[in-house]
Amino acid sequence: MTYRSLLSIREFKHGATCKDKVSDNYSCSYPPGYNGKNCGIDINECKPNPCKYGASCMNEVNGYTCVCKPGYEGKNCEIDINECKPNPCKYGASCMNEVNGYTCVCKPGYEGKNCEIDINECKPNPCQHGASCMNEVNGYTCVCKPGYEGKNCEIDINECKPNPCKHGASCMNEVNGYTCVCRPGYIGKKCEIDINECKPNPCKHGAACMNEVNGYTCVCQPGYNGKNCEIDINECKPNPCKHGATCMNEVNGYTCVCKPGYEGKNCEIGKLQKNLKNWTKSKISKLPVIESGKDDVIDKTVVLLSDSKTNVSPPNQRKRTNNTSSSIRKQLKEHHQPKYYNSTIERLDNIRVYDWSLPVWSNSSCIPLKNLHKTTYICLFDPKDDVNFSRSLIETGVWDKQLLREFKLLLAQKQDLNLLDIGSHLGLYSLTAAMLGHNVVSVEPFNKLFPAFYKSVVMNKFQKRITLLANAISSKKEFVKLSYEDKDMTSATVQSANEEEITIENIASQKVIPSITWKDLAHFVPFNKIVLKYDISFRNHNNNLLTEASDLFSTLDVQYVFMHWNHFILDAGNIVAFFKSRSYIPKKRVFGKPLKLSKFLKWKGGIIWEKDSRA
Predict the structure, then answer these.
(1) Vertex 392, ends 386 and 397: CA angle to 5°?
(2) In terms of domains, do 264 and 240 share one?
(3) Which InterPro entries does the record match to this protein (predicted)?
């Protein structure tokens, strides 16, 4: 066979061409992707496999195709597809790329594949006591019902802190509110209203009603008494009429039907007494006398009836020849006069007990004290002569308003207490205590005050309740000098007397008197459990007199002390130390809170010291 014939027989594949067509020594020139003698073999580009990450290789003519697994791409699947571009995560979540996927890292409060879900923190409802839950991003807000608070409305609000209740009322906490348990005498949501017990007026016979906390006081018209002034006072009991006369009771008075031969208001004047009508009114003169067998000078007061016809008058006074006590006693022995003080007290020589049984004339005017359940009169000086105490009471009816109110409140509650009234003056506190049923020892050295005080005691029939000691108190037994401010009886003062001032004239006129000590007083007072009212003024003598009263406080059970703090501001530190060492608590009100001891220089007005029952 010829060469050309062979060429016609041979077939060259896939468009291949023969380079040498003359002999058998030829070769195919094959297109890309084929090889072999006759270019009949398709080259497998998938061997070795060029595809990455487990992709399948699909052979093709002169090439291949990689079938990538999910998450990859590229010619050879060599590229990890970034599913986080663009970011599929919502609400600011972070995207973490993964093979064939991603994970969203949600911000707090979100959930879901793409953090597209706002978590509802209100399911289940965390709010308590019926509160509404408001869902928020990564949280919630409870809308509490009235009366509750807290994150979950779990706290019952205590409406009693701070206490809204007034006048010492107790507060009872409730849901969304409170109830005040008022003390007697108050009403209102907060116990802020003082009940006016005077509406309607319970007082009878035209009496004035004075409203008080949980009560009232009727100021009776003269002639009536009783809680409501409902009782017509029987002035015939006891019978004031003398010499067998008949007593006819009247409103605020009486009439004596005298037996023949007698006359006068009380039928006290018989034939032998008629000559007394020409006498002038009684006046008081004071003379010191010596008790028989005693060595010490004892001051006694005498009553003299001075008549222009009989010329009854005190004996001539002898002047003092020297300054010794023996000289004074020698001169005083001649002055034996009717005694104005009771001399039955033998145990303490200088104690001078006022004798209520002897009549004393006084031109002082008398007014009823306010806010007392029984009409009680106090007799006063002319306002021109006593511009403070007497004028204030006459014109306004008020003196020591706050301190006296607390004093009355205390004695109304503490019936077992009795009063030691040091510096009793005209007896405001003594009369008040006696009216409330308490026994009283009053201490007052100033004789100018005695007639008015005597008149008050006798008018109110308090002779058995009030004992008056006409003495000054000192830290030692000595003579003291008494003095008054012009037109102000409340400013009377006591000073130590010097030798030149201890004269017969001064002793007889009561300008100089002997003093008693706290020990003397403590042994005289006939009761143990007391309230002490302290109101005296010592000048150039002993400004710390009260702080030397250890004998009194150790002998008697002093439960309370009432005093005017302004009077003692210069001695405040010593007085505070005195009471503090004896476990007394300072207050402004009897049933009020204690004052701070550190603030004692800022205290004003009346101060009450209460003995601590725990001490």
Answers:
(1) 135
(2) yes
(3) EGF, EGF-like_Ca-bd_dom, EGF-type_Asp/Asn_hydroxyl_site, EGF_Ca-bd_CS, Growth_fac_rcpt_cys_sf, Notch_Cell-Fate_Det, SAM-dependent_MTases_sf
- Name 136's bridge partners: 139
Which backbone phi and psi does 555 adopt, to 5 degrees?
Answer: -90, -40
CATH of the domain at 566: 3.40.50.150
- In this predicted structure, the answer to whether residue 355 has a pLDDT above a threshold of 60 is yes
Query: How does the average pLDDT of the chain come out, rounded?
Result: 80
Domain co-membership, 496 together with 366: yes
Alpha carbon 502 to its chain centroid, in Å, reads 49
Find tokens 């409170």 and name the residue.
Answer: 178
Residue 126 lies inside a defined structural domain of this protein: no
**pLDDT of 579 above 50:** yes
**Which is nearest to 492 in space by CA: 424, 403, 410?**
424
Between CA 131 and CA 137 the distance in angstroms is: 19
Beta strands in 106-230 (DSSP E): 110-111, 117-118, 132-136, 139-143, 148-149, 155-156, 170-174, 177-181, 186-187, 193-194, 208-212, 215-219, 224-225
pLDDT tens per residue, range 34-84: 777 667 788 899 999 999 999 999 999 889 999 999 989 999 999 989 989
Q: Domain range holding 19?
A: 3-42
Kindly tell me the burial class for residue 276, based on how many C-beta atoms sit within 10 Å of its own C-beta (0-12, 13-18, 19 or more): exposed
Q: How far apart are the first and last CA of the chain?
A: 152
Determine the pLDDT at residue 553.
93
- Identify the burial level of 453 via C-beta atoms within 10 angstroms of its C-beta, where 0-12 means exposed, 13-18 middle and 19 or more buried: buried
One domain for residues 256 and 396: no
Do 593 and 608 contact (CB within 8 A), yes or no? Answer: no
Reported confidence tier of residue 569, pLDDT bands at 50, 70, 90? low
Residues 53/44, Cβ–Cβ less than 8 Å: no
The region of weakest confidence among 218-232, 413-427, 566-580, 587-601 is: 566-580
Query: Is residue 377 domain-shared with residue 469, that is, in the same domain?
Result: yes
Alpha carbon of 4 to those of 9, 21, 24, 361: distances in Å? 9, 8, 11, 186
CATH number of the domain within which 25 lies? 2.10.25
| CB-CB neighbours of 251 under 10 Å | 13
The answer to the question of residue 62 being in a domain is yes
Residue 499 is inside which H or E element, if any?
none
* 259 and 368 inside one domain: no
Q: Are 13 and 38 in contact (CB under 8 A)?
A: yes
The number of distinct structural domains making up the chain is: 4
Q: Residue 334 pLDDT > 70, yes or no? A: no
Question: Does 264 fall in a domain?
Answer: yes
pTM above 0.85, yes or no: no
In a domain, 231, yes or no: yes
